[in-house]
Amino acid sequence: MSDFKNARILVLGASTGIGYECAKHFCHQGAQVCIASSNGEKIHAACESIGAMHGNFPSVFQVDLSDSQSVDRFIEALNESHHLDFDRVVLNAGGPPYYADSLDIPESIWLKHFQSLFLSQIKIVQALVPKMKERRFGRFVLIGSSGMTAPIPGLCISNAIRSAMHAWLKSVSDELSPFNININTVIPGKIATARLEQIEAATADRLGISKEQYREKVQTSIPSKKYGRAEDIVNAVAFLMNKEASSYITGSAIRVDGGLIRSLQG
Ligand SMILES: NC(=O)c1ccc[n+]([C@@H]2O[C@H](COP(=O)([O-])OP(=O)(O)OC[C@H]3O[C@@H](n4cnc5c(N)ncnc54)[C@H](OP(=O)(O)O)[C@@H]3O)[C@@H](O)[C@H]2O)c1
Fold first, then answer.
1. Within its chain, how far is the Cα of 58 from the centroid?
2. 8-190+228-256 belongs to which homologous superfamily?
3. Does the model's pTM come out above 0.85?
4. Is 44 touching ligand 1 by the criterion CB < 6 Å?
5. Rg for the chain (alpha carbons), in Å?
6. Would you say the CB of residue 96 lies under 6 angstroms from ligand 1?
7. Which end of the chain has fewer CB atoms surrounding its CB within 10 Å, N or C?
């Protein structure tokens, strides 16, 4: 039997890309999945599309992770419908925008993404940990970025906030581990999603080349010579959420990058 049959799984940022593929996978495995994102139309469409594939429809929530009050309402709604009782959570959100000049980033933009990628994720973990402690089991997986290890030009907000988030995660993992609650990061390299297309377009524009030229240049620089698929991330997430396979892994990070990151550490 699948480790995820009847598991209670929450996936944030689940309307498209990596979050969507995670939700689809866990629904297929027979889990009770809740999905959330900020755009009501998109998240309902994701639910319909997943349900139509496997007959297991996820529950849908709308939350703007960049808005603290919206997150409070979300937690309230999760309490009413599910008593904040989840055993596995994918912490995910939309990536911050591209800025060619890092010193041009206004404070309001920093605050918005700090809320979304840092404070809201922490608030959700805080809300869900008590039930996990009671049950003495839990798995959190954060979707990070290769910029945490090797800062990506133009993505200063992502590089900085995700590094801070990983430091928080490592700190809190000490406190959660005695309760068999593990928290880890998956680090995507270049994964073919809508998000990557946006980054490609912005960077190609800055370099004055076409998107296709830029894509070829990037893919050539990756040891595996190709972009990854969202399913490649799902495999790592599923491993880190498995009860037995990853039981001794916490406060850690797994790169899924086709060899992209050129460093020994991190
Ligand atoms: N793809 C890559 O190569 C890559 C590489 C490194 C890191 N990452 C990071 O991994 C994460 C997922 O990437 P992806 O490629 O799957 O991106 P994506 O396709 O753009 O998906 C982002 C998801 O987050 C949701 N979202 C955006 N803003 C939100 C908000 N304020 N509140 C709640 N949900 C929000 C989006 O749905 P709504 O629009 O409905 O809210 C969507 O479901 C991103 O943070 C990205 O930066 C991706």
1. 18
2. NAD(P)-binding Rossmann-like Domain (3.40.50.720)
3. yes
4. no
5. 18
6. no
7. N
